[in-house]
Amino acid sequence: MWNGYFGRIGIVFLPVLVALGGCDSRAAPLQEAPSSTPQRSEVRLDRHQMDLVRNRVWVLTESGVVLYRNARRERVVIPLPEWLWVGAPYGCPPDLALGPKGEAIVTSNVVPTLWRIDPETLEVTIHRLELDADTDKDVGFSEVAFSSRHGKYFAVSAKHGSVWSVDPLLGKAHKVQAFARADSCGAKP
Which residue stretches of the chain are H helix? Predict the structure, then answer.
């Protein structure tokens, strides 16, 4: 499964695979996969997901998401309409997660909104979450993950030091707990 095309571009993904986390939005440009038409470089945000079931890699960049489909030898740029985020030193980067059906979920680190990318059509839908707490704050999420055990997403607002459970329909978020904030993104005090 990981031979052929992926073997040739595997070196391109190595920096993405080992550079998880961090707040530095000045990361090195992601190199392009071989293509018949030249594409401009995208600056990665050190957020990516490998979908081994569908043989693809999702990469979050400063301008949206880039999807690499190994089986088709294809690179697809997916813009995120109305996507808001801030870079260092104002916040930790937004995040990218895969859902149970292979959909990609992208956060904003500024507002409680999620972008869902359909795994088949690549259609982007915007989901403005209804918060049950902290409605007087600008809550955004710098981490998100799907829990198959709980059947929902969990998101972290590093700015406010809080964890949120997000319903699988991406409509509501419930504040689970507050935690001691780290000095920087992902670093413990």
Answer: 5-18
What values do phi and psi take at 108, rounded to 5?
A: -110, 140
pLDDT digits (tens, 9 = 90+) for 140-172: 999 999 999 999 999 999 888 899 999 999 999
Has residue 1 got a pLDDT over 80?
A: no
Residue partners of 115: CB distance under 8 A and separation at least 6: 80, 83, 105, 106, 107, 124, 125, 126, 127
Tell the CATH topology of 5-178: Methylamine Dehydrogenase; Chain H (2.130.10)
114-123 CB burial, b ≥16 within 10 A, e <16 = bbbbebeeee
Enumerate the domain spans of the chain.
5-178
CA distance 100 to 3: 26
Distance of CA 94 to CAs 12, 23, 43, 48, 108, Å? 22, 9, 14, 11, 5
- Write the DSSP string, 24-77: -S-PPEEPPPP-SS----EEEEEEEEEETTTTEEEEEETTEEEEEETTTTEEEE
